[in-house]
Amino acid sequence: xxxxxxxxxxxxxxxxxxxxxxxxxxxxxxxxxxxxxxxxxxxxxxxxxxxxxxxxxxxxxxxxxxxxxxxxxxxxxxxxxxxxxxxxxxxxxxxxxxxxxxxxxxxxxxxxxxxxxxxxxxxxxxxxxxxxxxxxxxxxxxxxxxxxxxxxxxxxxxxxxxxxxxxxxxxxxxxxxxxxxxxxxxxxxxxxxxxxxxxxxxxxxxxxxxxxxxxxxxxxxxxxxxxxxxxxxxxxxxxxxxxxxxxxxxxxxxxx
Length: 256
Known about the structure:
Blueprint: H1 3-14, H2 20-26, E1 32-34, E2 39-41, H3 44-48, E3 54-55, H4 61-73, E4 78-81, H5 85-94, E5 99-101, E6 106-109, E7 121-126, H6 132-144, E8 148-152, H7 161-164, H8 167-171, E9 175-180, H9 186-193, E10 198-202, H10 214-221, E11 228-230, H11 236-247
Parallel strand pairs: 3-4, 7-8, 7-9, 9-10, 10-11
Antiparallel strand pairs: 1-2, 4-6, 5-6
Helix pairs in contact: 4-5, 6-11
C-alpha cells in the first residue's frame, strides 16, 4: 500500500465518493499482510519512503511468486534481489511482467515508475569490472528507489589516472557508492579527494587472502579518510538504500 494510494482513498472519503466502510476494507491489510510463511510489511513505504524489497536467496520460487502477487496488488513496485537465473525463469512463467537483470541477479516489476527525488545524482563507482554485479545491484536499486543514477566503472587504484581523469564528473554527484574487492582501497582514495558522502561496498572479489571479501571489508572499516560509511560484503541493495536516504535529507515526502 503506497502513500499515494492511501491519500487517494482518504480524498475519496472526504469527497463522499466512497463510504468509510469501503475505505476500511481497502486499508484492512495495514500494517502487514500475513501469508503464513511471510508477513508483508505494508507500512514500509509510509515509514521509510521505500517499499519492502524481497531477498530472493533462500526463498522458493513459489514463495516469491505469492509475495510478489500481493505486493503488486497493493500498488507497490516489486523488487527481488539475489534472484538466481533458474528461479527467475520460474517467476517469469507466473509473473510475465518481471524484468530480470542477470548481471545484478535482480528482478523487478515496475507498476509505477518512481518520480525522481533527491538533491542530485547518486554515482556508483567500481574499482574493477569484476565488481560490476554488486555495483549493478546498487545502481538498479537506487534507480528503482527514485534516484538519478550515474555509473563509473573500472577506475581502481591499480591505475589512478582512470579515476582522476573523471573527477569533474564525480564532483557533480551528491552521493557516491564506491564498490571494491581485493584490498578495498578505492573508497579511501575517493573520500580523500572529494567532499561527498561515500558509501563503501566491499565485494567478495579477490584471491585466497581476500577471504571472500573480509580483506576489503576490514580495509574499508580502517580507512584513513574520514566519513566513510561501510555496508556488508556484496550488499549493493544496502548501499542504495543508504544513498537514497542521504540524497533525500531535508526533502518532504507526501506534500501536496
